Amino acid sequence: MDAQQALADLAEISSQIQAAVVFDENGAIAASTAGNEAAARPLAEGAARLLDEAQRLAEAAPLKQLEVATSEGSVFVVADGPTRIAATTAPEPTVGLVFYDLKSALRSIADKPMPKKRAAPAKKPAPAAAKKPPSAAEKKPAAEAAKKPPAEKSTPKPRAAKPAPRKKPDAP
Least C-beta-crowded within 10 Å: which of 55, 58, 113, 147? Predict the structure, then answer.
């Protein structure tokens, strides 16, 4: 799927996202919800700076995701290889859901249709004399073979409660 279609799908399913942009590690914008590159550029550049600075401070394995929250809203950045996606939301978004939606959008961009595989050639059946007899672990005991499959078993019906015993009338 192309980046613009992925963002269109993202905007449709995630009501919390206000703006989003897909860009690469060099800052080249692939798609945005802003409509034009000039409007998307500040978000892409800001997100790239946030990711770079957080990575510098972390000094660990490459960062995969980042959230910056303010009283006015949040900025989310998710990286997958050279491709990044950044989004803004209103204050107090459902963080896990926003990250999930952004990662799903990135995966849909990265997914390319797999080439059709050729059918494997049919194998020739082995001669009957060459077949090995089944091992003891492969044989089913006779008791198991006689059992009905689970779908055919009848479930036991619940028993009705016994009625209370009758009292004998008092003798006069």
Answer: 113
Domains of the chain in start order, with CATH, are 3-110 (3.30.450.30)
Shortest CA distance to 87 belongs to which of 70, 58, 104, 67? 67
CA 11/CA 171 separation, integer angstroms: 85
CA Rg value for the chain: 32
What is the torsional sign of CA 34, 11, 29, 43? positive
**DSSP H or E segment with residue 83:** strand 83-89
Task: Give pTM, 2 decimals.
Answer: 0.63
Whole-number Å distance between alpha carbons of 67 and 61:
17
pLDDT category at 92 given cuts 50, 70, 90 is very high
Q: What is the mean pLDDT of residues 133-154?
A: 55
Cα 3 from Cα 88, distance rounded (Å): 17
DSSP-derived secondary structure letter, 172: -
Cα–Cα distance measured from residue 89 to residue 11, given in angstroms and rounded to the nearest whole number: 12
Q: What are residue 34's phi and psi, to 5 degrees?
A: -75, -20
